[in-house]
Amino acid sequence: MEFDIENVDDENWSITIGTEDGLTYTWTSTPSGFSSSLQDPGAVSPTVNTDYHVTYTNTVTGCTATSTTSVLVGPALTASCAIVTNASCFGSTDGEIDVTAVGGTAPLTGTGLQSGLTNGTYTYTVTDDIGCTSTCSSTITVADNVDPVFSGCLASFSINNDPGMCGQFVSWTDPTASDNCSVSSFTQSFPSGSIFPNWYDKL
């Protein structure tokens, strides 16, 4: 008689055995706590290493036989994602997330430093040697702490208007702005070449 043990998910296994007419089945376990009289008891969810024993009884001859199969339960696997570095700008690929895990059955895959990340949410899966998995997520944000820098700002100055004029056209060299994340927009109250009334004293 052969067992077929299938890992349904991280916590459940399915036990089935081959078909043979005229038999009854008595299932027990070590540690105790599991019993069944079905040929295929279906899903089991042990939390520790467990041996499953089945006794076959031939209903015609009364002969019996016993077989045992084992389910090994690894330590619970827990993945963690930690932000190492946020992105310096929108669209920059300098973010980093460190994926670690505790428990599980070594070796583990999916852990380590994940680099080259832009802003956004990332989900990672860690898998241990027996196929158990654990996921974690972290969100890379933009940590732009550098203010824009203005250059060429005008100093205060005065200009006389032409005789008979109630204002004066004024031209100047526009200041410039720079930023580590590039400048998306630059506005000023008046463009160079604007006319200013006599009473206006602020640019």
Topology (elements, then pairings):
Blueprint: E1 3-7, E2 13-17, E3 23-30, E4 42-44, E5 50-58, E6 64-71, E7 78-85, E8 95-102, E9 112-117, E10 120-127, E11 133-140, E12 149-151, E13 167-170, E14 176-178, E15 194-197
Antiparallel strand pairs: 1-2, 2-4, 3-5, 5-6, 7-8, 8-9, 10-11, 12-14, 13-15
Helix % is under 10%
How do the SSEs run, as a string of H and E? EEEEEEEEEEEEEEE
Number of helices: 0
Number of strands: 15
Q: Roughly what fraction of the amino acids lie in strands? A: 35-45%
How far is the first residue's CA from the last residue's CA?
A: 94 Å
Identify the strand order in the major beta sheet. 1-2-4
The Rg value, from CA coordinates, equals: 37 Å
The chain-level structural class is mainly beta
- The mean pLDDT is 84
Largest sheet: 3 strands, antiparallel
The parts where pLDDT drops under 50 for at least 5 residues are none
Net shape: rod-shaped
Folded structure, characterized:
The protein is mainly β. Helix content is 0%, strand content 44%. The chain has strands at residues 3-7, 13-17, 23-30, 42-44, 50-58, 64-71, 78-85, 95-102, 112-117, 120-127, 133-140, 149-151, 167-170, 176-178, 194-197. The protein is rod-shaped, with a radius of gyration of 37 Å.
TL;DR?
The chain is mainly β. Helices cover 0% and strands 44% of the residues.
